[in-house]
Amino acid sequence: MKFFSYDSKFSQLLLKLAQSCYLNLLWVLCSIPIFTIGASTAALYAVTLRMVKDREGDLTAAFFRAFRENFRQATALWLILLAVGAVLGLDGYILYHLFRSSTGPAAVLWTLLLAVVIAAGVAYAVVLCYVFPLVASVVNTNRAMLKNAFFIGARYLFCTILVLVIHFAMFFVVVRLFTPMLIFGEGLCALLSSLLLARVIDACTYDPNRPGAGGEESP
Q1: Rounded to 5°, angle at Cα 207 from 206 and 209
Q2: Which residue stretches of 138-178 are H helix?
Q3: What does the pLDDT average to over 5-12?
Q4: How many helices (H) does the chain have, and how many strands (E)?
Q5: By C-alpha distance, which of 94, 15, 92 is closest to 56?
Q6: Are 2 and 11 contacting, i.e. CB atoms less than 8 angstroms apart?
Q7: Distance in angstroms (rounded) separating the CA atoms of residues 18 and 47
Q8: Which ranges of 173-207 does DSSP label H, i.e. alpha helix?
Q9: Could you read off the pLDDT of 14-46 as tens digits, one per residue?
Q10: Which among 199, 187, 188, 118 has a CA at the least distance from the CA of 158?
Q11: Which residues touch 218 (CB under 8 Å, ≥6 apart)?
Q12: Taking Cα atoms as reference points, which of 89, 91, 84 lies closest to residue 127?
C-alpha cells in the first residue's frame, strides 16, 4: 500500500520518530558523566539540524564526529552554565524563603531581589535554548556564543517560547502523564526544536555557500 511505502509521509514520520528515539539513547549514554552533557547536546543538535534538511547521513557517525569536534567548547560552556544555574537556583530558593518569612520594607526588598533573579533565570533559559545549537552550527568564541545565544533568542522571541514549550511539554508528559515517553526524551525535543531553529540559525549566520550570500560575518 502506498500509505505504508518508504517514501510516504507516514513512513517518513515513523522513521523520524525512530531516529529521535535512537538519538535520545546516544544523548543519554554520552551525558552520564554529567560534565559531558554540553558536548552530547551539541552533538545531538548537529544531527537534528541536518535531519530537518534531509542531510543526516549515518546518525551514529555524525553524532560522535560532532561530539569529538565540539567537546572542548561545549563542555566549557556547559560547566559555565551549570555553575550559573546553580547560583541562580540557590539565590532564588533563599530569596523566596526570605520573602515568605518577612513583612514590611524587608518583604519589598526581597521581592525586588527575587524579581531580578527571576529575570536572570529567564535570560538563562533563553541562552540554554540556543547556545548548543549554535555550537553545532558555527565557529566562535565562548563569550560570543553566549552573547549571540541571548540576543538571537530575544530577537526571535516567538521561536524561543515554542522551544521552551516543547521541552516543558515533554517534561510534563514524562513526569505526570506517560513516563514511557522518556524513550523519546531530548531526542524528540531536539528534533522538533530544530524544525524551528534551523531557519533562525541560517538567518543569523553567514554561509559562503548560501546562494546570494554577501561578505558579512557570522554574529
Answers
A1: 150
A2: 142-155, 157-172
A3: 66
A4: 7, 0
A5: 15
A6: no
A7: 14
A8: 185-204
A9: 888 999 999 999 999 999 999 999 999 999 999
A10: 199
A11: 138, 139, 140, 204, 205, 206
A12: 84
